[in-house]
Design goal:
Elements: E1 8-12, H1 17-28, E2 32-37, E3 51-52, E4 57-58, E5 63-67, E6 86-89, H2 96-101, H3 103-110, H4 112-124, E7 129-135, H5 162-182, E8 185-191, E9 194-195, H6 206-216, E10 220-223, E11 229-230, E12 233-234, H7 235-247, E13 255-258, E14 264-265, H8 266-278, E15 286-289
Helix pairs in contact: 1-7, 3-4, 3-5, 4-5, 6-8
The protein binds uridine-5'-diphosphate (UDP).
Uridine-5'-diphosphate (UDP) is lined by residues 95-96, 193, 204-206, 209, 221-223, 228, 230, 266, 291-292, 295.
């Protein structure tokens, strides 16, 4: 993608599952990349091919990493000489067990963090592009299927998932304010369930959970009766979507769903994973568990 050649790009959440793949793809596209992560859920092993943790030194000439809370005002952690062209704001715990373990950090990074980053850009680099990583969870437990971007959602404002769902919605609202009031170039990606290499096997989401259990020969944990559905996007497709959304001129101000349109029930997902790991004749052993509160049905 030519747009990124020689551009300076900030990626918040760079040590995360999606963030680290995005960093790799941006480097291939010949961008200079500055990664920031406070490692609350990100893992330096995702960047080990680019950064020597012991020496605290990047091993790629166009990559720099700063361990910091990206939600602070960026003057506090960015190198002074940086000249930003684009910011991908991906920093946030993202799996339900993780954001529920860090509810305050989660709502702060998506709201105050988004506000601070946009305020900084407005003051210093008003022409820079800003992409906010939102989520399919802004639709809550949707009553419309599949969800078009124009659907406003069905979200519990004060439930187990609200620290994430509502802060992503507020993050979108903040992007809208900076776009309308200050004419800034913002783009919003609503990311659906994503999987692939480097996903934290302990993060509690359905694909890493079931894949880890299948590899160990353990029963697969299905929450509820397994009839709820999800769509799963492979990480390289998602990263390509994020980069297109950032680089295409006419996507300025747009909000775009990024995911896979194919819908699978959790039970079907368990069957696919069991077969892929243990072969077509493997007997599917399920451990049924309670459905978490406010778990979307589709
Ligand atoms: N789920 C499950 N077993 C697991 C983990 C998750 O049945 O070990 C279910 C969960 O209840 C939800 C779906 O799988 O209905 C997807 O959950 P995930 O945590 O991946 O993310 P969500 O899409 O709910 O944010």
């Amino acid at each position: 993608m030519d747009y990124f050649k020689n551009k300076t790009v900030l990626v918040t959440g760079a040590a995360g599952f999606i963030g680290s793949h995005l960093v790799d793809a941006l480097l291939v596209a010949e961008a200079r990349v500055l990664g920031v992560d406070n490692l609350i859920t990100g893992r330096m092993e995702n960047l080990q091919h680019l950064y020597d943790v012991e020496a605290k030194k990047s091993s790629h000439e166009r990559f720099e990493f700063v361990q910091a809370d990206a939600g602070k005002f960026p003057d506090e952690y960015l190198p002074v000489e940086v000249n930003l062209d684009a910011v991908f704001h991906l920093a946030s715990p993202a799996s339900p067990p993780r954001y529920q373990a860090h509810p305050v950090a989660t709502y702060l990074i998506n709201t105050v963090g988004t506000h601070n980053l946009l305020t900084y850009l407005k003051q210093k680099y008003p022409g820079a592009r800003f992409l906010f990583a939102s989520t399919s969870e802004v639709y809550g437990d949707p009553e419309v299927h599949p969800q078009p971007e124009s659907y406003w959602g069905n979200v519990n404002p004060n439930g187990e998932r609200s620290c994430y769902d509502e802060s992503k919605r507020m993050g979108e609202a903040i992007c809208g304010v900076f776009s309308r009031k200050y004419s800034m170039d913002v783009r919003i990606a609503r990311i659906f369930n994503t999987y692939g290499p480097r996903i934290d096997p302990t993060d509690g989401r359905v694909i890493p959970n079931l894949a880890t259990q299948a590899l160990k020969g353990e029963p697969l944990t299905v929450y509820g009766d397994g009839s709820q559905t999800r769509s799963y996007c492979y990480v390289s497709d998602l990263v390509r979507g994020l980069m297109l959304l950032m680089s295409v001129d006419k996507a300025k101000g747009e909000t775009v769903n990024l995911g896979n349109p194919e819908e699978h029930s959790i039970m079907e997902t368990a069957r696919i994973i069991e077969e892929a790991v243990r072969g077509p004749d493997a007997e599917l052993k399920i451990e049924y568990m309670d459905l978490p509160k406010d778990d979307p049905t589709r």
